Amino acid sequence: MTIIAARKLIPSLGKDNIGKERVKAAAEIFKRHGASSRVMSVVGGEGAGEIHMYSGYPTVAAGAKTFEAVGADPDFQALMAKRESDPAGEIIGPEVFRVLYGDRQVDKRVVVQREYHMPRENVPKAMEMMPRLEKIIGSLGIGVMSGVPLIASDHEMAMVIYYFNDLEHWGNSVDKMIASPDFQALLSDANELGTLTCSRLLVDI
Fold this sequence. Notes:
By secondary structure, the chain is α+β, with helices and mostly antiparallel strands. The chain has helices at 16-32, 60-71, 74-85, 123-128, 130-137, 167-178, 181-190; strands at residues 3-11, 36-45, 51-57, 89-102, 110-117, 143-151, 157-164, 195-204. Strands 1-3-2-8-5-7-6-4 form an eight-stranded antiparallel β-barrel, surrounded by four helices.
């Protein structure tokens, strides 16, 4: 069961580059203590302009161990001191999610996240649809994953995440997905289980 801790920075005006460097430095510290971390920029959709860091763990226990180790790391403490003396923006999180279908594909540079408002009782039915989705998009070379909150502000939410090689791959794939009757039929069925509330396009930094 993969666990993902999500953090985001909303940069202050003029502090974008400083924010990116600090988040990248934090990701390296988390990696040193066992996390599989990546830093991404939101280039479109909800939260455009934000900087996100995602850290993956095989279990909740592994994530908790890393969290404690990072907090005690002198390099991380120094980074937090910089944050206090010279803030680069507003930090939100971590929020923690558990993966129900698929897995992270950190080799793919572009990610699309689609968030659905979904009553918890509908989640199992939604997960039954994931193999159907994977079959439809598999020939396009798109990766897919789905998960739900474990520790978060909204627990009536499910997320579907698509992985693309690059922006060109994303653009070509979306054109084909829009034109696919099978994909459109699947979206229609999914809308009976939940409501799409937002989506975002992210690129590796």
